[in-house]
Amino acid sequence: MTALTETAAVPPRLEVFQALWAMEQRRSGVPERPLEQSFAMVAEAGFDGICIDTGVTPLNEAFALAPLFEKHNLRCLVTAFVSSMDGLTPVLELAKHLNATHINLIGQVMPLGVDATVPVARRWMEMADAAGVELQFETHRNSITNDMFATLQLLDAVPEMTLSADLSHYVVGREFDYPISARTESHIARLLARSASFQGRIASRQQIQVPFGFPQYAKWLDLFLGWWQQGFRQWRAEAARAGTTKPLNFLCELGPHEYAMTGPDGLELSDRWEEALLIKQHVRAIWSGLDDEATS
Q1: Mean pLDDT by 10-residue block, N- to C-terminus, for the chain (296 residues)?
Q2: Are 150 and 140 a contacting pair, CB within 8 Å?
Q3: The organism sits in which domain of life (predicted)?
Q4: pTM for the whole structure
C-alpha cells in the first residue's frame, strides 16, 4: 500500500469546541465560576477544545491559560476582534503560544467597497502565513464580512480566502424569509463551500440566538442542522481531494445575554450549557451519518 493510499484511508475527524465566553453566566449577584471549573466541565463533557475570544479575555489573561489547556488535555482555538492592521500581530503570538488550531478573525478594518477591502484581507492573510498560523475570516456583523453579498464578492476576489461560518449573523442581518428561497440557498451553498470551520448558534430572522428547544424554533434548528450537514459533506469531499488528515473544527458558541434571550426577571429563558451539549450531540450524529455514507 502506498503512502498516498494510507493517507487517504484515514477517516476524517470532527473536533467540537466550546467557547470560553459561553461559559459565563452573567447573573446579578452570582459570582462567575472559576476558569478551572469551566475547563474541567468542558473536558468532562467530552469536548475536544476551548475557544478563547480576545474580545472578552484580555491578551495577557489569555496567554496565562496555557497550563489549563495542558492540564485538561484540551485543544485551543482563538477568536479575535482586530481593529487595526497591526492588531493581528499579538493575536498571532497568542495562537502560537497556545498551539491554536487556527484564528477566527473578525476583522474590523472596514473600507467601503470590495476593491478597497481586498488588500486588507490579503495583508492579514500574509501576516498569518508568515507566522505559520492558519487564518479564517469569521462571518460576523460589524466586520469586513458584515454583509453576505459583499462577502460573496470578496470571496470571488480573493480565491484563497477561507471562512469560519457563523451563519446566524446572516440569517439576522438579511432577515431571511422562511422557507428559505432557492436564491438564498444558493448563496449559502457558496459560503459553505469556502468554509474551513463552522460555528454553532441557532438564529431566526429576528433573533441572533434563540432557545432552540422551544417548539416555535424547531424549524430554525432543522435549517441549521441541514446547513451544517451540507457544509460538512463539502468539507469532507475537499479534504479527500486534497488528501489531508486535518480535522474539521466546529465551535459551540452560545453567548450569554444579550445574545441569550431573557425574561422580565433578567434571567435567560434556557440553559445554554445544556443547549451546547445538544448541539455537540447533533453535529457528531451528522458526522457519524457521513461516515456511514462514506463506507456504504
Answers
A1: 48 95 92 96 98 96 98 98 96 98 97 95 98 98 96 98 98 95 98 98 97 97 98 96 93 96 94 98 97 86
A2: no
A3: Bacteria
A4: 0.94
